[in-house]
Amino acid sequence: MRVVFPDGETAVMPTQEGIRRAKDLGLDLVVISPNTMPPIAKVIDYGEYTYLEKKKKNEAKKKQQRVEVKEVKFRPDTDQHDYEFKKNHALRFLKEGKKVKATIFFRGRQITHADIGERILQGLAKDVEEYGNPETTPRIEGRSMSMMIGPKKNQKRPAKAKKNVAAAPPPAADTEAPGQPGAAAS
Q1: Which own/partner pairs from 140-145 qualify as long-range (CB within 8 Å, at least 24 positions apart)?
Q2: What's phi and psi for 96, nearest 5 deg?
Q3: Cα–Cα nearest to 100, from 65, 71, 141, 130
Q4: What is the dihedral of CA 75, 80, 81, 84, to 10 degrees?
Q5: What is the set of domains in the chain, with CATH numbers?
């Protein structure tokens, strides 16, 4: 096997010889590429190697962006005001960069009128098209019909509001205006 040492030296040697030399250095022999001819192994501190790999993985996880999915629920007989109210919620979620799952629940024989649910979902997709695009078409799953709407990529997300703490400094205690209660007489 080809052994790569920490100082950059490489040598082709039997496996037992590589293990013995790694132990002499107080390190471990780790096979890097077992499918090559001869297999390649590296002499490293395996504990430190796994620690660094774990650290890299955690750093990559921190930089990941999690997409939240918010759900807006309708019924086939949802009134216009309720529809507008829920549509505004969906718009707010999309502006915040979250995905919206629009769901219509059917009860009893309402399932026979799936076209009404589909019209509601298509209308919602049309109403929010400025901020989001439908990712799936309406589909029936059991007694409900759902559709995913994702935020548009090019839209700017609002920055989180920061409180302005840097207001005017409070007046000093000993410099009160004359004529005010508690003012010092001259």
Answers
A1: 140/114, 143/105, 143/106, 143/107, 143/111, 144/103, 144/104, 144/105, 144/106, 145/103, 145/104, 145/106, 145/114, 145/117, 145/118, 145/121
A2: -80, -5
A3: 71
A4: 80
A5: 2-61 (3.10.20.80), 69-151 (3.30.110.10)
SS3 77: coil
The token pair that represents 22 in the structure block:
């790694």
User: In the chain, what is the greatest distance between 2 CA atoms, to the nearest angstrom?
Assistant: 100
Tens of pLDDT along the chain (186 residues) come to: 899 988 888 889 998 999 999 999 889 998 988 899 889 999 999 898 899 999 999 888 887 777 788 999 999 998 999 999 999 999 999 998 899 999 999 999 988 989 999 999 999 999 998 999 999 899 999 999 999 999 988 765 555 555 555 555 555 555 555 555 555 554
Burial-class residue 2 by CB neighbours within 10 Å (0-12, 13-18, 19+): middle
Q: Read off the amino acid at residue 157.
A: R
